[in-house]
Amino acid sequence: MDQPSHDSKSGPSPTSSLVPESRSPQPVSSHAAAPPLHGEAGLPTQPSQRTIRRLIREDQICVLTLDRPGSEANLFDRRALAELGEELDFIAGAPQLKGLVITSAKRSIFIAGADLNMMSESAPLEQVRELIVQGQAVMNRLAALPIPTVAAIHGAAVGGGYELCLACDYRLASPERVTRMGLPETQLGLLPAWGGATRLPRLIGLPRALDIILGGKTLAAKQACKCGMVDDLVPAEYLLDAAARRISRGKRRRPARRLYLNNRLVASVIAARLRSQLAKKTRGHYPAVLKALEVVTRGISKTVAESLALERDAILQLVQTEAFRNLVRVFFLQERAKKRTLVAAGRGATVATAAATAAEPRPNAPETPVSPDPLRLSKPPAAPEPKPIKRVAVIGAGVMGAGIAQWLSSRRLRVILRDINTEQVAKGMASIAKVYREGLKRHLFTPREVRDGLDRLYPAPAEVPLRQVEVVIEAAVENLESKKIIFRRLDELAGDHTILATNTSALPISELAAGTRRPERVVGLHFFNPVHRMQLVEIVTARQTAPEILQRALLFVQQIGKLPVLVKDSPGFLVNRILMPYLIEAGNLFEAGAGITILDEAMLDFGMPMGPMRLLDEVGIDVALHVAETIAAHYSDRMAVPRTLSKMAQTGLLGRKSGRGFYLHHKSKEPQPNTQLATDHAAHLTAHASPLDLQERMVFLMINEAARCLEEQIVTDPADVDFAMIMGTGFAPFRGGPLRYADTLGADKLAGAMDYLVDNGAAHFKPCALLRSMAASGKKFYHNEPARGGVS
């Protein structure tokens, strides 16, 4: 079942534009070799393996170009900060210089912020303190230079990268799509602490700054220019020349027109209003947001030095919280997914792995007997690197098919969109055009990109040749027999090396493969709904899937900018397999008398982005029923589909798409609970359960099913379970995922609580063998993790 994107009302998203180093951090020293304190006019300095290159132009303007060796991204670690400090030493000792321009040599990154490895839980608190102090000192020195300074921004300037820009007198940016800027720290459980919380309000005013900082926002260049975060937009090829001309304006002074917004009275009024709103929105689970509000509103009426001290003290508190630890783990898992690959393991075997991305401890492996690893597959040891995919066909122009086609066309792939008649294809094309229009309004696309994306789509209401297509993605109706017919025909139409993929959310892929002449090229690519917002794709390997097909599918998912998780073919795969017991239990609790609002509020309080009853409505009652029946048929010992879902589907109460479900949906109003449904089931009211009781019943079943997935090796790494559930369902990111949360509770306490429910008549809560084993041994899903003393 495909999940709607989660609403940000429950707290910040786990995603962020900060980019840690994509390999194991190298030892660094704050005593890096100093650059030569000279430089001939027009010639760059040439120190080896340095992050910063210096060029002194003939007009005596110094250009510092950031270009981190061996990396696609620039970021700040202790070494890079030390290098920048050394360059500032040189500039301070060169009175002939007229100005400074800071730019980047990377194609899509200006500076991606601080290296998060240096603030992970393995880092001593004193090391974090030194990093913050060093960063603030360097930014202060840059801001205090007597010569005018300009940040010439092309690519992402986020977190510490944008804080560097704030320390400059002027900011010029290219209008290209890759150029974005902002302060996303709150999405990682932090706040801007290298001057961002201090300087941004002074630049654009307190209200606008709070909107960006509290929301952890990054803006497109045009939006950033409109709100004052940059001074002007200049094509990338002219940035340096424009920056040099800007230097002629001299040093910049703080604009007096901001003073009416930036004072203690205004700050106190804004803080009082926002504090209650944020507490309701975050439900107390994201301390960084409230802490950022406090620092910004207090700091605005203080000196810069006093405000920086507030930043420093606050971030040192936040790095000790469980929310930060879990949110940064999620970020590292996102980076791992981008680098994931299949590597040789033993005699011609391969195993799913990832390039080292963080100092993240290796989780426990299950200790109960398991089936053969589905991702250990034979592969030629010297297989050539697959070429990027260029041509794709999508079969089915419904919600999912159109969503997939739109995403692929936006990623510069040529896409055939096929359905049974002109009307269905036209509906799909209209849906695609709507997504592009919305993206244009949000500055996600330029008008030219929209035009080019639509031009790459080829609507096909009848059969067309598929011999030259490299990937076919079937996204037709969720009916196994219909899909078998489609796959047999695709097998005839497609070229010999074409990947045949299905977007099914629960049906057995191995059965689809069995009906083709080349079952080894069949694989599952399960996208989530809406495709343009949900990052996760489950890559499902059937029994017959060849390793080279799996490798090509993995690279394809990464190529199109999605985050893959590799799973074994099994009913419901991974995400829906774990999610369904939760939704079924919510339905059963509703039938037992728990109110719609009570159930949803209980899970919102837990940290879910949406309550289970609202989620059922958003997915569609008929869709949820189909997936529930498909999965429950295989696990009838512990899953019984609530009769309410069948009755609602039969009477047309399908949720949002029909206007009525568990909620009544109005276009211009917030959905309201369908009180008629509640009345129908009032007679079944049982003993009142507290919100905590309801939370435990729903969450325990997710944890139990997640542990079973490890037992059966649907995936082999607990981190894959947690990553998939957070990215696919929005499972409370600050809790780190269901298995990370299970470790927080403790397997012994968890098993004991579930046994209590079993003893009281709820047999479906019986702990699985893995949980039993862990409860007895005292082990965790994750072990040997360094512990920094902290607060929750």
In short:
The chain has 28 helices and 23 strands.
Structural commentary:
This protein has 28 helices and 23 strands. Helix 17 links the parallel strand 20 and strand 21. Helices cover 43% and strands 12% of the residues. An 8-stranded mixed beta sheet has the order 16-15-14-17-18-19-20-21, with helices on both faces. Strands 1-2-3-5-7-10 form a 6-stranded mixed beta sheet, sandwiched between helices. The protein has a 4-stranded mixed beta sheet with strand order 4-6-8-9. Helix 5 runs antiparallel to helix 9, helix 8 runs antiparallel to helix 9 and helix 18 packs antiparallel against helix 24.
Characteristic key phrases:
globular, disordered C terminus, 43% helix, 28 helices, 8-stranded mixed beta sheet, 6-stranded mixed beta sheet, alpha/beta, 792 residues, disordered N terminus, single chain
Task: List the topology elements.
Layout: E1 52-56, E2 61-66, H1 78-92, E3 99-104, E4 109-111, H2 125-143, E5 149-153, E6 156-158, H3 160-166, E7 170-173, E8 180-182, H4 196-204, H5 206-215, E9 218-220, H6 221-226, E10 232-233, H7 239-247, H8 264-282, H9 287-299, H10 304-318, H11 322-339, E11 341-344, E12 349-353, E13 377-378, E14 391-395, H12 399-410, E15 414-418, H13 422-441, H14 447-455, E16 457-460, E17 471-474, H15 480-493, E18 499-502, H16 509-514, E19 522-527, E20 536-541, H17 547-559, E21 563-568, H18 575-591, H19 596-606, H20 612-619, H21 621-632, H22 643-650, E22 663-664, E23 672-673, H23 675-680, H24 691-711, H25 718-729, H26 738-745, H27 747-759, H28 769-777
Helix pairs in contact: 1-2, 2-3, 3-4, 4-5, 5-9, 8-9, 9-10, 12-13, 13-14, 18-24, 19-24, 21-22, 24-26, 27-28
